[in-house]
Structures are given as structure tokens and as C-alpha cells.
Design goal:
There is one protein chain. Strand 5 and strand 6 form a beta hairpin. The longest helix is centred in the first third of the chain and has 39 residues. The chain has 15 helices and ten strands. By secondary structure, the chain is of the alpha/beta class.
Length: 388
Amino acid sequence: MRKLIGPLLLLALIVGVGYAILRSGKAVTARKNAEREAAAITPVRGLVGSEKVAYLSDPRVLEILRKHGIDLKIEKSGSREMAARTDLKKYDFAFPAGAPAAIKIGRVTGTSKSYQPFFTPMAIASWQAIVDILVANDLVRRSDSTTYVLDLHKLLPIMEAGKRWRDLPHNTAYPIGRAILIGTTDVRTSNSAAMFLALSSYVLNGDNVVQSDVEVAKVLPAASQLFLRQGFQEASSAGPFEDYLTMGMGKAPLVLIYEAQYIEYLLKHGGARPGMVLLYPQPTVYTKHVLVPITPAGDRLGALLEQDPELQHLAAEFGLRTGDPSYELKYWTSRGLNVPAQLLDVADPPSYDVLERMITSVEHEMACASTADPQACGSAASLPRRPQ
């Protein structure tokens, strides 16, 4: 028996040492694999409009991107501010709202490539009592059983004339002295307000995109008043929509928003609050969310956001329209949302340079309105063109 103990102990020792070596080898291999995986993940940094921050911060989106080797880092920036930055080349991509800003960014960075993963039409958040007044005055109609359409050709002249809500016939629900206006963000900082400027200028120009200085001068006096008469305006599209939700009809009877904001709210809260109504202006304008790649890493991100089915489908949960309309409409319908499949009367925004000129002119008018001697400022439409 004693003769067997020695060999058995030696065997046990050999097995133990072998097991320890094996475990150590597995640990080394696991560590090396982790290091290789970490090395394969590239930080990708970019500027993003506020309306896409929630989507691009969603853990599911970030996890899909990491599987493709992208560690996404974003900084929030207004689209107009983004297009005017001088440090764009230190980022991998820029992701503004609106094609005009994206074109300007591509011009500045020398990038001809771009991606359009999703888009959203501009819409107007309102209340049933307000809608009933507008219907009674032939300003709103139903295009189908669920979609309300606001006729801008009829509403803009009323707004231009300075009419007040109490001036509208058949109005017992909101007979106040407040001016009839569509509330927007600050056109100097926000893309959504710039899109309303683009849309109103289109209507004021006889349903033609403003293209020249002559046309700018023609539409600007009326268009600028749509912003000047509002008073304080928020810098971001989140602000007016929050006022709409929290303060209701008294503060926000008509508020310009992205359709995606409204859809996202309904999806997250299981439906609308009592009285909430979404109007589609006719004509309307789409905001395209355009990613401009500045580096190869940014290019990979743009391709993924535009082409990966999982990422496209997740965008529907944030109310964004994508290249797969059948999926998003089915998804929204399954959750009780009735959203028009397409909008037919859609205007194009002006070029970046023309839109920037109009915004600069409105900015000039706002500055003049706050001075003691507005007459000394002269006409905004006569401003010299800003170098681009």
C-alpha cells in the first residue's frame, strides 16, 4: 500500500499543476480576447441635434453599435450653430436636422458623402377645442377619419393681419385677445423654426421655393413678423412641446413641433392626453436628419444607421420615419396610433445660403425691435449678403 501512495501523490501533483496551468492559460486567453475586442472598438465622436439625442443614447442602439466596433460619443449642438463651427474636423461626424445645414457642413469639411437614416415632417400640436374653432372657420379639415390638415394658405393671411382669437366667428371656447400665431422655437438657433421660415416663405412666394434676393425681399416683411410677434422663444424644440404638455391650451394653442416628438410621447405614455390633437400643415416640409461623415469612422456609423434593420426599426420607437415605412406604420398602428402613410403637399426648403440670409435678416429685425430707435436699423431685407 505504501508503495502505491508515492506514485498516487505524484500523479495528483501532476494533475493539480496541469489544471492550474490550464486555468491560467484560459485566463490569459480570455484576457487577450477581451483586449482584442476592446482594441477593435473605436470611439466615434460627433455633433448631434437635440431631437436625436434620446435615440442615440438608447442602450439598445449603443449595444448594436458596439457589436459593430463603434463606441459612440455625442455632443448636442443646434443645427445652425453646428454648420457655423470652425472646429468640425476634430469630430468624426456631424448630424444636424435639415438638409441645408448638412450641405453647408459638407462644404466646410470638404465632404461630398452623406447619409439620411430618417426624417420627420413638421406638424402642429393643438387641442380639440382649438381645432373645433378652426374647423368652424374653414381653416382645418379632415383628410381622412383621423388626420387633421391645417390650411396655411388661409391661416397665414389671418396671422399677417394681426387677428386675435376673439375675432374668429363661432368661437366660444377660446374668446381671448391673444394674437393668432403658431408658436415656434427661436429661428436664430433652432432648425424647427428655420423650417417654419422655409415653409411660410414658400407660401408667401406663391408656392415657390425662395431662390433670389428679390424673392427674399418680397416675403421677408410678412415672414419676419411671424417670429417677431411671438415674444420669447425657446432655443430648442423640446421647450415649446414641454409648454404644450404642461401648460395646455392657454399657453400653447398652436405649437410647431416635429411629428416625431408627438409620436414618441404617445408611444411612451400609452396614448394622448385628453384633448391633444396633431395637425399637419398644408403644405408641410420634411426635416431630413442628415449625417455628414468627416472621418472613415463617421462613414461607418452613417452606413450602419441608414442600412442596419435593427437600428432602423428602433428609430420607429422614437417617432422617426425611415426607409422602411411598412415597418414603422405597422409598429405605430399596433400601438393604437393612426399616422398618415404619406403627405402629398410637401415643400422643399431653400438652399442653405438663402435660408441663412432670411434667418440673418429676421435676427436683424429682432435686434432692431429691442433698440430705442428701431427706425435707425433700416430694412432687414436690404442687408448685404453675409459671406458664406
